[in-house]
Amino acid sequence: MDYDADLPAHVERVLAEFLRTAGGPIREIEPTFGAGLDALSGFVLGGGKRLRPSFAWWGWRGAGGDPSDRELAEGVLHAVASLELIQACALIHDDLIDSSDSRRGSPTVHVAFAKEHADHGWLGLPSTFGQAAAVLIGDLALAWADDMFADAPLPPATLAAARPAWRAIRTEVLAGQYLDVHTQVTGDSSVDAALRIDRLKTAAYTVQRPLHLGAALAGASDELVGALLEFGGDLGVAFQLRDDLLGVFGDPSVTGKPAGDDLREGKRTLLVALGLGYAAKRGNTAAAGLIEAAIGAPSLTESEVDDVRAALAEVGAVDAVEQRIEELTSASLAALERAHLAEPATAELTALAAKATKRTY
Q1: What pLDDT, on a 0 to 100 scale, did the predictor assign at position 120?
Q2: What is residue 33's DSSP assignment?
Q3: Arithmetic mean of pLDDT over the chain
């Protein structure tokens, strides 16, 4: 069984098996909750790049993990695949927090359940039911993530070695999410705040801690974990900066979300922070006004998004973010080389870095 070549398919396999087994008992006890179980399964299995399990797997392989031991590899696969359930929780709740209507080209969970409520003509506000359902389904995903990790068929000592990384990934992403909404409500458009969010909400959660988790499962030294954290920190921020650009300039058919949604949701990204800062330095009040007015404007039209795009490009914010992505990616790859990982991990992580930061708009 070639785990390396077909990693996303193997992640999908163990997730499908876990979701089916985990949902069986409660489905029998309370069939009404079946709609929630189906929604979670559909969300988890209906798309996604599987980046977090991939980084974790290659952290394990780079630290000497041997996939020829099929029993061990299956256990590691279950442990790293559980990261997708944390991701499901984060995305379902994030869509609710941001009042997003679509995800991967389909209605978000809270929107889908609100529509179901409205179609049945039940009492109360459909939106309230949709919000409550999304909170509970996201909570279930997080609870099941813990179950899947804890029940991975691995020696207790192996799981114990990875538990600090597991604890950190859950806490750091929540801290990053809190900081994200805090900057929206306070209007903090500083570069420092944007980068702090990127470090916690994306770099640590998407790249650093998954690498840490995988390496710990292989019994990696503190020195090797440190090198992977350095690689993952810079790469994770670069990945988020690329996502920020896609949030404004991306093709909805590729991103799965309407272009400009980050602006409508009031995201204080580095792109926005630099746009406002550069506009102020150049005395370009028109550009500054366009950017500021767009942040948190839910009714922002496509034409107005085009105007903001032009303003961000005009003041140099887009080029500055592109340069930052290039610099961070180069620094991350240099750290990766210094890690001296077991092959083919270096080559695979280099390919993942290129995929995560590729310009696609």
Answers
A1: 62
A2: G
A3: 93
Q: pLDDT tens digits for 25-40?
A: 999 999 999 999 999 9
Residue 329 binned pLDDT confidence (cut-offs 50, 70, 90):
very high
Phi, psi of 102 (to 5 degrees): -140, 155
Give the model confidence (pLDDT) of 129-160 as tens digits: 999 999 999 999 999 999 999 999 999 999 99
Distance CA 17, CA 41 (A): 10
User: Which long-range contacts (C-beta less than 8 Å, at least 24 apart) are formed by 191-194?
Assistant: 191/270, 191/273, 191/274, 191/277, 193/268, 193/273, 194/268, 194/269, 194/270, 194/272, 194/273
Q: pTM higher than 0.90 for the full model?
A: yes
Quick one: tokens of 12?
């999908």
From the number of C-beta atoms within 10 Å of its C-beta (0-12, 13-18, 19+), residue 169 rates as buried
334-342 LR contacts (CB < 8 Å, sep 24+): 335/227, 335/230, 335/231, 335/234, 336/227, 336/231, 338/227, 339/62, 339/224, 339/227, 339/228, 339/231, 341/61, 341/62, 341/63, 341/224, 342/61, 342/62, 342/63, 342/64
Single out the residue of 246, 241, 243 nearest to residue 327, CA to CA: 241
Q: For 322, what's the count of Cα atoms within 13 Å in the CB-facing half-sphere?
A: 12
Contact of 242 with 357, CB cutoff 8 Å: yes
Other Cβ atoms closer than 10 A to 42? 14
Helix (H, G, I), strand (E, B) or coil at 232: helix
Neighbouring C-beta atoms of residue 187, cutoff 10 Å: 11
